[in-house]
């Protein structure tokens, strides 16, 4: 049995109300796994919660957004020679009991996505419509189907960690996953998971930014990614 050295990367923006509950559940479920909170310039007491609780964390002095916070965590994972890095929400939506399944998938694939829709229906909300559009764009440009492209629960192997840490504009987004599938021949698998709604804290996305996000991702997947330089590995 191969044991991976795994890091859970937890970007946190104004998550003082939910962070302790999230970390407590994480540690109870997977005590063998390291974790790192990346405080993304929070204006609340997220840093105080980290300090008082003794959590390992990076403290970004300005808000870089999810992409910047994630890449900061990836640079840490790369410099400390982790085999697997998993993006994990600070708001409690992601369930830590699925982490071992993601780790197991990473032994055979470059990227593993915690997917809500491997077999379940997406429903008919505006957000799910956007998910379907992004799914279609990825299918059109890569020939592969990702049922839950906007899932924020993603695992990356050491090769992907190296690429994401050492190249520009490598946020944890569907267009990046699609780009890696094309330019780095990344293999992707979806692992069935169940997620819950956030009960506290402040999301990176509101209704308007969610719409703009879907449009930006679709345009990037269909057009912009073809203008990007091929990834390099340092």
Automatic annotation (TrEMBL):
Keywords: Transferase. GO terms for molecular function: transferase activity. Residues 8-161 form the Glycosyltransferase 2-like domain. CDD domains: DPM_DPG-synthase_like (cd04179). It comes from the Bacteria. Transmembrane segments: none annotated. Belongs to the glycosyltransferase 2 family. This is Glycosyl transferase family 2. It comes from [Collinsella] massiliensis. The lineage of its organism: Bacteria, Bacillati, Actinomycetota, Coriobacteriia, Coriobacteriales.
């Amino acid at each position: 049995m191969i044991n991976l050295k795994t890091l859970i990367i937890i970007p946190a923006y104004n998550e003082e109300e939910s962070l302790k509950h999230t970390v407590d559940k994480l540690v109870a479920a997977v005590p063998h796994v390291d974790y790192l909170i990346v405080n993304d310039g929070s204006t609340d007491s997220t840093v105080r919660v980290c300090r008082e609780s003794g959590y390992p964390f990076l403290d970004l002095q300005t808000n870089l957004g999810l992409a910047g916070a994630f890449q900061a965590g990836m640079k840490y994972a790369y410099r400390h020679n982790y085999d697997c890095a998993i993006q994990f929400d600070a708001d409690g939506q992601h369930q830590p009991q699925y982490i071992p399944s993601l780790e197991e998938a990473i032994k055979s694939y470059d990227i593993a996505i915690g997917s809500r829709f491997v077999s379940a229906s997406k429903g008919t909300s505006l957000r799910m419509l956007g998910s379907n559009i992004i799914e279609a764009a990825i299918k059109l440009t890569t020939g592969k189907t990702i049922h839950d492209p906007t899932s924020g629960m993603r695992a990356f192997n050491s090769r992907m960690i190296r690429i994401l840490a050492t190249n520009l504009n490598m946020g944890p987004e569907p267009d990046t996953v699609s780009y890696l599938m094309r330019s780095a021949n990344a293999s992707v698998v979806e692992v069935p998971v169940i997620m819950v709604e956030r009960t506290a804290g402040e999301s990176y996305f509101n209704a308007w930014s969610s719409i703009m996000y879907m449009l930006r991702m679709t345009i990037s997947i269909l057009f912009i990614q073809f203008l990007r330089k091929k990834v390099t590995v340092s």
